[in-house]
Amino acid sequence: MTPAKRIAFIGNSLPRQCGIATFTSDLSQAMSEPVHHTTTSIIAINDDDQQYLYPDNVIFEIREGEVEDYVTAARILNEGRFDAVSLQHEFGIFGGPDGEFIITLLSQLRIPVVTTCHTILAEPTPSQHRVLQRVAAKSSRLVAMSEKGRGLLEEVYGVDPAKIDVIAHGIPDRAFHDPATAKEKRGYQGRSIILTFGLLSPNKGIEVVIDAMPAILEQSPEALYIVLGATHPNLLRQEGEAYRESLAARAEHLGVGSSVVFLNRFVDQATLLDFIALCDVYVTPYLDEAQMTSGTLAYSFGMGSAVVSTPYWHALDLLKEDRGLLVPFGDAAATGKAIASLLGDDEARLAIRRHAYEAGRSMIWPYVAALYLKSIDKARSAYRPRLVSDLVALRIKQPPQRTGLKLGHFQTMCDDTGIFQHAVYSVPDRSHGYCVDDNARALLLASHLSAVGETGISDRMTASFAAFVEHAWNPDRGRFRNFMSYDRRWLEEQGSEDSHGRTLWALGACALSDSDAPRRRWAGALFARAMSATLDFSSPRAWAFTLLGLDAYCRVHPEDKRGRILRMQLAERLMDLERRVSNGSRHWFEEGLSYENARLSQALITTGLSTDTREYLETGLKTLRWLMTQQTGENGQFRPVGTEGFLEVGQKPKLFDQQPVEATATVSACLSAYAGTADKSWFEAAMRSFNWFTGSNDHGISLVDPETGSCRDGLHPDRANENRGAESVLCYLISCAEIGRASRIERPVLQPAEYRQLS
Q1: Longest Cα separation, the chain
Q2: How is residue 110 annotated by DSSP?
Q3: What is d(CA 589, CA 647) in angstroms, rounded to the nearest whole number?
Q4: Are 607 and 551 in contact (CB under 8 A)?
Q5: Which of 31, 103, 285, 421 sits at 20 to 30 Å (Cα–Cα) from 476?
Q6: How far is CA 570 from CA 44, 534, 535, 619, 672, in A?
């Protein structure tokens, strides 16, 4: 395997002020050094109400609370020809409960992921436990920064030990220094400097050192305690500088105000290293042991500072073997005694500094970057892509009809109300008006095209389909109406169960992929109101359509417990049907076959993939295999179940009439099967089904006009149906979009500035 050339990072990034931002930026820079022949880019996580002037290598910004941004980021990464993703995981930086929105992104990636775990809790809440387990499951490898972290990943979260690498927090490569020289540079000559740096917040224990200062000054009157760092941005937004002011007041009250200096700013790395170099004692008085890693400790330790620290996990690991002093949590007397002893013993302080510096050589960024690249290589060698576009690009011969979507006839079928149901030949038939089924299909097509950045369906036209669906909603019944006359009169108070499920499917796709953010929010909100009705439905196809909608909706709204529960309930209903009906070599959900049969299998396949439920996936594949035996002609061509034989028990499927909706359902299901198995035969089955449109059928007749994108309504026993209604043209165009997306030739690599324009 060739080494990774393009690596994308996901995490906070400078100039955002936090430790993970510094880590992400430093590691990205270290891995992009010329010696590694690697380029790196960053997907930056933003606080929702903040904006930053990022450098050019930040190619996209995720607003932490906007799940749609996570979906967009996954698309950018999948289409950017990256070799791997380095994810910086911390519960508090991503949106959703305990940061679960990041799972939405990971679920859609088709690239190996190496996740660095910045926080690994020994006693997580159930939500934290679930989130980190799911992140681990969707990562090819995980990095812990200490052996303690490795142990917790194994024991608490059940991660396979073979999947974990231990790589220390990186540090700058600096020569062993003389504090006296650095003090002179900054004007602190003649003082004994005690230093704490980092973003200021109450859990840092600064007050403990302030309380220790009177005892320290008794032995070293020239001592000066410098607290370097800005107040944590979250604390600043909530309380302003109240905490810092309380610390200053505490120092004044103890009479040590002149010996405590607060430098309230977020400093660049050069300034930070100057201050580490000039300190005599570095102190980390954190109040909680559950600190898996501390960048401030790593920097100071690795540069050869004499460290006094409380025994949190990272400090216990670094400061063993005479490489620093540990003091009890919150113990000002012990803290003061330890600091004073080091300030008063030059020889002991120098010995600790040398031990720390020597141990820190294995933590310098060039070495750490090399270890991460090894971890990424291991991830890539073990990774097996699951989605079609990674596997078939450049390998599958393009069929002659996939030369781009032609939308002329589709546009002819539309007016400002929506899309007409039927056509007489190619002329829209106003006498039959409109239906929500076809307008939902049109919205689904628009969402498919939007998901891959294609144009063609105008925003105004998409808005008309959405408006039709909105108007179809009958809040009094909690159902969608279906049929509307040409003069815009509803012909019923509620439509069929299947039309309701199909509309939910379109709403889910719109909520996930529509190009307009307000329309995405509209679709998600209407889906949430309309989904519960399906619990009272008896139609397996309505369940299947709803499950396909839930697959998209739950990616956008993973926090919606009702959606997650409904998905499992409907999937179990399909599973129960299959268990009761299947026998011998016949694996199906019903005694007979009907329309859009493949959607039942597809619903279980997609649900199994998105919920990691192997039984759903296997049942979906098993039933689809059997269905394909019923839909294959003597010459190997696709032969959909004819309408004349719907639901005939114990009979072979009738040959006619054959309709486009069956071919489209089968194309989609086979592509879903390919996504779940990487078995090339499923892609070939999808292509055979698609080629039914273009002449590989029982009559050898092409049903489509490649110039207008129209599609005939099907095959009669002796001829093609010359009418070209909405269902037929939409089914053909949806299949074109899905096949095209699955087997397209890879696009050229976009540069960072171009990505920013796309976003």
Answers
A1: 106
A2: -
A3: 12
A4: yes
A5: 421
A6: 37, 9, 8, 14, 18
Helix locations, 220-364, DSSP H: 233-239, 242-253, 269-278, 295-302, 313-318, 332-343, 346-360
Determine how many CB atoms are found less than 10 A away from the CB of residue 251.
23
Question: Distance (Å, rounded) from C-alpha 422 to C-alpha 312?
Answer: 71
R_g of the chain, CA atoms, integer Å: 31
Q: What's the confidence (pLDDT) of residue 453?
A: 61
Count of residues making up the chain:
759
Q: How far is CA 397 from CA 400, 666, 677, 744, in A?
A: 9, 20, 20, 10
Which tokens in the block code for residue 452?
Answer: 């891959």
Q: Is the peptide bond before 657 cis (omega within 30 degrees of 0)?
A: yes
Q: Lowest mean pLDDT: which of 23-37, 106-120, 399-413, 550-564?
A: 399-413
pTM for the predicted model, two decimal places: 0.54
Answer whether 247's CB lies under 8 Å from 231's CB: no
Contacts of 527 (CB under 8 A, 6+ apart): 504, 507, 508, 511, 549, 553
CA 125-128-130 angle, 5° bins: 110
Distances 543 to 38, 256, 445, 478 between C-alpha atoms, Å: 47, 71, 20, 16
- Measured CA to CA, the distance from residue 617 to residue 142 in angstroms comes to 26
Helix (H, G, I), strand (E, B) or coil at 41: strand
Cβ burial, residue 290 (10 Å; 0-12/13-18/19+): middle
User: Each residue of 24-43: pLDDT tens digit?
Assistant: 999 999 999 999 999 999 99
Q: How wide is the angle at C-alpha 44 spanned by C-alphas 59 and 263, nearest 5°? A: 125
Question: Among all chains, which residue has been given the structure tokens 């209407």?
Answer: 526
Q: How confident is the model at residue 740 (pLDDT cuts 50, 70, 90)?
A: confident
Q: HSE, CB side, 13 Å, CA atoms: give it for residue 477.
A: 15
Question: What does the alpha-carbon distance between residue 618 and residue 621 come to, in Å, rounded to a whole number?
Answer: 5
> 3-class DSSP state for residue 416?
coil
Q: Report DSSP letters for 219-232, one per residue.
A: H-TTEEEEEESPBP
SS (H, E, C) 378-405: HHHHHCCCCCHHHHHCCCCCCCCCCCCC
Which amino acid would we find at residue 177? H
User: Which has the closest alpha carbon to 148: 355, 315, 297?
Assistant: 315
- Produce one character per residue of 613-623: b if its CB has 16 or more CB atoms within 10 Å, e if not: beebbebbbbb
∠ CA 101-102-103 to the nearest 5 degrees?
Answer: 90
The residue among 414, 499, 407 whose CA lies nearest residue 465 is 414
**637-659 core/surface letters (b: 16 or more CB in 10 A; e: else):** bbbbbbeebeeeeeeebbbbebb
Task: Specify whether the CB–CB gap between 145 and 246 falls below 8 A.
Answer: no
Q: What is the DSSP letter of 115?
A: E
